[in-house]
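Fold this sequence, please.
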Amino acid sequence: MASLILLSVDRARLSVAPGASVELQVTIQNLTTLLDQVAISVEGVEPGWVEVIPARVPVFAQGSSTARVIFHPPAAPAQALAGVYPLRLVGVAQENAGQQGEARAELEVQLVGDYRLALESAGPPAGQQASYTLRVQNEANATLQVRFSGSDSAGALWYKFDPFQADVPAGAQATATLTTRVKQAGAVQRPIAFTAGAQGEFVLQGGARVAAPAHEVAAQVVPGAPPRLKLALRPAGGAEPERAEYMIHLENPGSLPLAVILSAADAQGLLQFQITPTQVNLPAGGAGDARLSVHSISAAPPAGQRTIPFRVTARPSAAGVAAEYADAAFIQAGVAARPAFPWWVVVAALAIIAIVLALIAIYLLRMGG
């Protein structure tokens, strides 16, 4: 059954900024045979945004009347989100029960405002690494979807954002942690200027998207000295005259994994070295061990002992990380000299034997005579 109350609007689309107002005119036709009061209501936006003048429109039978519908969204960004709102205007007859009409329109709340980006240090640099807090204050009246990035002119830094993107509601704030790290540890000791940037888009009511301005903040990081590798050398097992065993202990106090190449040498070339393994892979903040066998390849000294100093070198494969050294000494025992054989004792003994034999012979001769 066709409605006997008809509504129409003077324009199908309106546009308004938050805090401002806009209005349309609605015309009500009464096709009944009775004078009626038609109550006008609006669906699709918050009731507090709408004012209808008059709220009840008197309409003569077979006549028409008009009313003003004023829209005034609030100025607060979070309370007047940008985008398009479909409107349904409904007129309900008070005398003719069950009779009502409707009209359609759209209200566009304009996108206003922007976002601010700020960078705050989260503490002094820790060696080659520094941390910052990145703050995004969304002062626009739409949800902001933003992505972060970092750059420096020399490409000397790595950048890590946690999270690397954020959804920031209208009028709200979000934070991310930025961690910078020098790519070549120890290679740079001077301040490094860099920028942290954000770019993204605003998501409007109804699903439309609008590109958001890109913003950057400038800062600088002053790298500290990289943590030094720790190297210790200690004897392992009993020492032998021509051989000794040592344990090489390594510690990586840095925040990155480290591969370390081990070697050993003595200045005189009197020793032979065997290291197992020659490369030790150390996790960040971790430790590792290797075994060193030292052999003498030179003749032992004729007497006493000989001290042969040698050096173990631990050289990280990462550029800019200083090598570490540990000094020790191999003690080679000498060979005791054999004492000269006492030939005079033999001669004396033979002389004594000869004398004894002569005396015996003389005695026998006398006895026989």
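The mean pLDDT is 88. The chain is about 5% helix and 55% strand.
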